[in-house]
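User: what does the whole thing look like in 3D?
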Amino acid sequence: MHSHNIDTNGFYGAFGGAYVPEILYKTVEDLRREYLGIIQSEDFQREFHLLLRDYVGRPSPLYYARRMSQRYGCRLYLKREDLNHTGAHKINNAIGQILLAQRMGKRRIIAETGAGQHGVATATVCALMNMPCRIYMGATDVARQHTNVERMKMLGAEVFPVESGNKTLKDATNEAIRDWCCHPADTFYIIGSTVGPHPYPDLVARLQSVISEEIKEQLLEHEGRDYPDYLIACVGGGSNAAGTIFHYLDDERVRIVLGEAGGHGIESGETAATIHCGTTGIIHGARTLVMQTPDGQITEPYSISAGLDYPGIGPLHAHLAQSGRANVLAINDDEALQAAYELTRLEGIIPALESAHALAILPKLSFRSDDVVVLTVSGRGDKDLSTYLSHLPQS
Ligand SMILES: *Cc1c(COP(=O)(O)O)cnc(C)c1O
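Assistant: Here's the predicted 3D structure for the full assembly of 395 residues, as structure tokens:
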């Protein structure tokens, strides 16, 4: 058991737990009782790993980035989650949860989505498994993420626009929880990040931990040792970061540096930097850091990157930041944009805007020339092209 990991009550230090309405108690409790046994079973592991290999395209490469290494004076490896089917790490988790849903006898899938990336991953696995799928999405997001809505519809999902509140992610989440309360027995709620009530954060972290499992093997092959000096990832809710660090949490030789979305700056009021600006509260069924007013109203987050535009943070990451195990930096929009152009021009890889927040950490650290750095490129940038083109660099 990791000392930085979850305790038997579903807490990481002061954060976590399961704060759900009474009517969901049994559903969440069933999941808590069954998830470890199922996902650790031979049958589950066999099907999960076969799909990760043949459907997702894993293992994702660990690529030695020569020109970026020269630029930053270290040995930089990129973990290429951008090469996965559907273009990001989210598919790893969606496959794992739908296999779990099937084994728990659930017949219907629901999910919420902000930018649409988790909605697309969920609609994809529902098509694969022939299960009915309803995706809740704020009406504002439906309008601004139109191509992802079209993808979900083509995949056969029903996209339900949510008209309450600000019509964004947290309103979609409230609506998904409302649906779950009405159909607790037959419906499985696929949550897309290391958030939500226990056991979701731990479930998602374990499903994504295939990332660090592969890093260990691949580093051994490239470097003759199975650990890096630094691990770097971006954090929205925290799932790609959790997957990247999972098998290294207790290895103090490995420094963990995470990038959250600073937006226009942590003092600007337009930010999604929850570690820097949040206070303890309850969101989506867990106690964690939350961006909120002094009287507990959740404040609307802002980031140029839709996937990081979230007013909470996974309880694991809140704990790692509080304990000092992870160093969390706030990366502003302009820094992320510059980092995305740099990777594109030096390595020919257009990263997702989310991943660019991890890349923008590099100029903020000082490395020794033999430092081995592994940075997870969580997704590809095709979905962000219009944003990139409307922010062309000066040079
Ligand atoms: C959704 C998303 C993220 C943020 O989610 P995490 O759970 O923090 O990983 C990061 N990168 C990409 C490409 C995404 O789609």
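In plain terms: Residues 38 and 103 are 8 Å apart (CA to CA). The mean pLDDT is 96.
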